[in-house]
């Protein structure tokens, strides 16, 4: 009888701990659809806001810098990405014709506070077009000058202006 009571005493705290911690395991994804992206909260579905696309600045600037780094040696992708996020004019190549969002960081802010929406299909196509750019193509030549390795101001030239792709990433503004 004493052994049975001792097992019950040990089992009760273990069961209680399992019940308390049972809902704390991280999940693998956020959002509720194929086009949803991580918003910048945690990896346990705790996004900063209910929009579908905050984080475009990190995502797109890194993609652009990785492309240029495959063609030119000596480019630090992280430093390039930070500079591209702050470069003015890139959002105009993504569909912001009124220049309400001068930098990619401003686009992130607009998506977070729900003043714009990102067309995820166009964003995916834009990424694919970036991947396909040849190193000897005019877009890369217009975007980056190896004689000025820290000048990222013309990176908007990498965003190919094919309908349904880069120029349609900023879908609409919410007023």
In angstroms, what is the radius of gyration?
A: 23 Å
What gap, in angstroms, lies between the N and C termini? 72 Å
Helicity, as a percent range: 40-55%
How is the biggest beta sheet arranged? 2 strands, antiparallel
Uncertain segments: 11-54
* Number of DSSP strand runs: 2
* Shape verdict: globular
Number of helices: 6
> Secondary-structure element sequence?
HHHHEHHE
Structural class of the secondary elements? mainly alpha
- How is the largest sheet built, in terms of strand order? 1-2
Percent in strands:
under 5%
Write down the overall mean pLDDT: 75
Question: Which key features would you list for this structure?
Answer:
two-stranded antiparallel sheet
Describe the model.
This protein has 175 residues and is mainly α. The protein has a domain at 56-173. It contains six helices and two strands; from the N terminus they run H-H-H-H-E-H-H-E. The chain has helices at 2-21, 56-71, 77-86, 104-112, 120-132, 138-143, and strands spanning 116-118, 170-173. Strands 1-2 form a two-stranded antiparallel ribbon. The longest helix has 20 residues, at 2-21. The N and C termini lie far apart (72 Å). The model is unreliable at 11-54 (pLDDT under 50).
Helices and strands in order, then pairings?
Blueprint: H1 2-21, H2 56-71, H3 77-86, H4 104-112, E1 116-118, H5 120-132, H6 138-143, E2 170-173
Antiparallel strand pairs: 1-2
Compose a concise summary of this entry.
This protein is mainly alpha-helical and 175 residues long. The chain has helices at residues 2-21, 56-71, 77-86, 104-112, 120-132, 138-143, and strands at 116-118, 170-173. It has a domain at 56-173.
């Amino acid at each position: 009888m004493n052994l049975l009571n001792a097992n019950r005493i040990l089992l009760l705290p273990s069961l209680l701990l399992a019940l308390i911690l049972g809902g704390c395991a991280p999940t693998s994804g956020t959002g509720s659809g194929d086009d949803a992206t991580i918003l910048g909260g945690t990896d346990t579905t705790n996004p900063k806001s209910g929009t579908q696309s905050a984080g475009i600045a990190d995502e797109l600037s890194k993609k652009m810098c990785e492309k240029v780094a495959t063609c030119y040696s000596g480019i630090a992708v992280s430093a390039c990405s930070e500079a591209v996020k702050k470069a003015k004019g890139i959002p105009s190549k993504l569909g912001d014709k009124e220049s309400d969002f001068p930098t990619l960081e401003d686009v992130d802010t607009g998506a977070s506070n729900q003043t714009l929406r990102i067309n995820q299909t166009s964003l995916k196509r834009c990424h694919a077009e970036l991947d396909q750019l040849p190193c000897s193509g005019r877009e890369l030549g217009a975007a980056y000058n190896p004689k000025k390795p820290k000048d990222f101001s013309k990176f908007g030239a990498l965003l190919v202006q094919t309908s349904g792709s880069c120029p349609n990433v900023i879908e609409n503004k919410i007023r």
